[in-house]
Write a structure and sequence with these properties.
The chain has three helices and eight strands. The relative contact order is 0.18. A hairpin with a 2-residue loop joins strand 1 and strand 2. The two termini are 12 Å apart. The N terminus and C terminus are likely disordered. The chain is an alpha/beta fold.
Length: 116
Amino acid sequence: MYLVVGKMRSLKLKILGKSVDVNFVEPTRFDKGTYGEADTRGCKIWLSTEGTKESRAITLLHEIIHFICDDFMVELDESQIQPLAQALFIVMQENGIDLLKLLRGGQNGKRATKRI
């Protein structure tokens, strides 16, 4: 589901059976050079509204990898997670998997929006 709350957006995402809230927030929430944050226990992801669509998609993949690592007890640091996120984004693009559609609110080929 894709929600619009004022100018901020959010969506629900399933990650390994967990329902995760993904919230798009102003970049001032983060330290300089940080564009996302994951709370794997609280099932929340925050993504900066700053940057290109592609960089936001890569940041989302980066935060999803944090959930995967936490669930499977795999210890990776930020310098290992970032290239994995970039590589997954490229593989998805090469195979016609449109992660950008998810960020725009598309579900099953349809745009699902609900205004609050």
